[in-house]
């Protein structure tokens, strides 16, 4: 009986609104406030002040447009990410998947390699609708340098750059060139932790795309902001991410309620829902991210 209830639309509805429902449960019991402050202080101190290593500030990282590496990254840090998402449309469903590896070769510098994949389901309403071709979107290379880390102000700043070598559709690989263009995306990150639990972050910069056979550039300006509440003594959080793009004078916005849950010291799961706030962006979406950090260890 339960499997008949879990249709595609019902499952998507649950994933979309699960993070929203979680927002109503973030207030801690007043009787436990003193213990919470003690646990948070211990946890934050473990993350930020390791013997013999540079200080860093603990920040909540957004789950959909994520950072290249932790702000203030330390040499030797590394992380694997596996993502899977779905977006409903009037004509067909769009699925996305990604595999990425990020690491810090030196203090304050993060590097990343990512392979994003997009594929499409059959038409739900009209089988004659021509759907886009499935494709490996690009080979994505990125770097991020934290140039300001202040333990006193609980603030970090970073500059970064993402370069994508865009690839042709799967059905054109044999007849066309393997690459079809380049995407250039410099960005700035500003993050601040307010007290022990509340986090805010701004990730912004232009994105410029030039395909080899296109006469003009496609240019957009991205403004991504996020606000999170991190659960006492853990890296679990709930919050919201606003992904905005300025394209040809129009502001396109998607609101993404989200939560991150640790299932072990080294493995976390992130759940993200997408609610478009413009008519140009049709359909609800969902996204899940599996995060694996080899070598991470909490001491408390």
Strand-helix topology:
Blueprint (H helix, E strand, L loop, with lengths): L1 H4 L2 H15 L10 H16 L29 E10 L4 E15 L2 E15 L11 E2 L1 E13 L4 E13 L11 E16 L3 E14 L6 E13 L6 E11 L2 E13 L4 E10 L8 E8 L8
Antiparallel strand pairs: 1-2, 1-13, 2-3, 3-4, 3-5, 5-6, 6-7, 7-8, 8-9, 9-10, 10-11, 11-12, 12-13
Key terms:
single chain; 300 residues; mainly beta; Porin; 12-stranded antiparallel barrel; 3 helices
Count up the helices. 3
Shape designation: globular
What is the radius of gyration computed over CA atoms, rounded to a whole number of angstroms?
A: 20 Å
Strand runs, count: 13
**pLDDT under 50 segments (min length 5)?**
1-6, 23-28
How would you describe this protein?
This protein is mainly beta. It has one domain: monomeric porin ompg (Porin), CATH 2.40.160.40. It is built from three helices and 13 strands; from the N terminus they run αααβββββββββββββ. The protein has a twelve-stranded antiparallel β-barrel. It is globular. The N terminus is likely disordered.
